[in-house]
């Protein structure tokens, strides 16, 4: 049985891991593609193009316009959405998972939680995962760590200087 009527796998992440939602995209990729499409069309000179998309509500949009930060917000959100889409591709990749990949994921997670003091804890993690785990086990660990990064909420880091 085909994954969907016209597609045999998600045209973005390239797998059948999640069910088809629309236009050749799975449950995970579709909402992100939709968000990307809406935000890409944001045009500061045309207020009606500024369609609301989570996590941005109408109040936030109004504030962004007032403070002249809508372009920064657009750029920042597009970057985050593209990065999540990219992580879904890695999540489903069949590549070998070596210890260094896991160590790097730990560093990324430390960075997004702003907990840099913990990054030392993961030094040498690569060796530990190479010696004590096989590739299948490392893949499970890798997927769990990727999920932490993927499930991160979108944020606007432009408010500090508003
Ligand atoms: Zn997908």
Description:
The protein has 162 residues and is mainly alpha-helical. The protein is built from six helices and two strands. 50% of the residues lie in helices and 3% in strands. Strands 1-2 form a two-stranded antiparallel sheet. Helix 1 (29-40) runs antiparallel to helix 3 and helix 4 runs parallel beside helix 6. The chain is flat and about 55 Å long. The site of zinc ion has 8 residues, from strand 2.
So what's the overall shape?
flat
Helix percentage range: 40-55%
Distinct bound molecules: zinc ion
Mean pLDDT, nearest integer? Answer: 88
* Spatial strand arrangement across the major sheet: 1-2
Number of strands: 2
Order of helices and strands: EEHHHHHH
Q: How does the major sheet shape up?
A: 2 strands, antiparallel
Which class do the helix and strand fractions yield? mainly alpha
Low-confidence sequence ranges: none
Number of separate structural domains: 2
How would you sum up this structure in a few lines?
The chain has 162 residues and is mostly helical.
Secondary structure topology:
Layout: E1 20-22, E2 25-26, H1 29-40, H2 58-66, H3 70-91, H4 99-112, H5 125-132, H6 135-150
Antiparallel strand pairs: 1-2
The structure holds zinc ion (ZN).
